[in-house]
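Q: What does the assembled structure look like for these inputs?
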Amino acid sequence: MKPRARTGHRLHSLEVPLQGVTLIVPSAAVAEVINPINMTPVPFSESWLKGVIGWRTLAVPVVSLEVLLGGAAPVDISTGKIVIFYPLSGRKDWEFYALLATAEPRPLVLDGSQPAAERSELPDSPYIAAGLKINDRLMSVPDLDALKKTFYP
Amino acid sequence: MAEPNQYLHLKLGNAGFLLPGVSGFNIEQRDGMTTNESAEGNVAAWRTVHNTRQPAYCLDGSLRVTRHHHWERAVFLAAAPHAVGLVVDEVQLLPGTETIITPFTPPGQPPTRVGHLFSGAWVTGQRAMLVFDPPALIAYLQSLGEE
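A:
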C-alpha cells in the first residue's frame, strides 16, 4: 500500500499495548494512565469486565479488550497499566471506562503519512475499525461505536 | 427500619456490598427463623409472617448460593408478594452523611429481568464498594426459588 499524502494535520496519539494486539488511540481520549490496583469484582458481569476501581471519586469499570477480541485476559496485570478513557460520545460524564494494558502507553504523532493496514492483517473483530502500519508495526484502531453498543446495550 | 439516605453494609463471604435504606429492609435474627435442614434447595432459612413463609438465601461474595451454618441474622427486603431475605455474615448501618454514593452501572448485558444488580458504588480512595439496586437484587433472589 502506498503511503498517504501528508496533509499537515497532526494527531497526537497513544500506542496502547495489549496482550496480542496494539491499539492506537487519540491522546485526547485518554484521561489518565495509572498503575495496577486492586479491582472490585462485579458479580454476574460480562467475562470481559475485570472489575471496578475507584478513581477521582468515580467508579470506573476495567475492561479486558483481549476478551472482547476473542482471546484470554492477561493473567498477571501487576506489570501492566490501567488506561482510563473519557466517556464514549453521548454517554454520561461519569461513565469513564478503563482498559488493561500490558505496558506503559507510548506517545505517537500521526501526520497522515502512516500507511493503512489491510483488513486481512487486522484482528477479525467488530471492535477493530481500522489499522495503521507504523515502523512496520501493526496498530489497531478500536471501533468506539461498537464498544459503546456492547457496553451500553 | 433505616432512613432512605442510610445504607446497610452487608458482608457476604469475602465481599462487602451496600444496600440502600430506600429498599425498606429489616433484620431478622436467626433465632426467629427456621433453618432449612435439607441439603437440597437454595433456601437457607425461612421466617414466618402471617402464616406466610418468607425465604432467606445464603450467598457468597460472588452472589452464588452457598450453605454454611455460621450466621446469626438475615436482612429481609420488602417485596411482592412477600419479603425475601439475604443471610449476612456481618451487617452494619452506615450514616448517610458519611456515605457518598457515586453512580455506577456495570457495562454489558444486565443479568436480571429488571436490570443490573448494582446502581452505584461507594468510592473511598481507589476502592469501590458496589451498591445493590434493590429491585434487581429482589428479582435475583426471587429467581432462586422458594425451596
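The longest strand of chain B covers residues 43-49.
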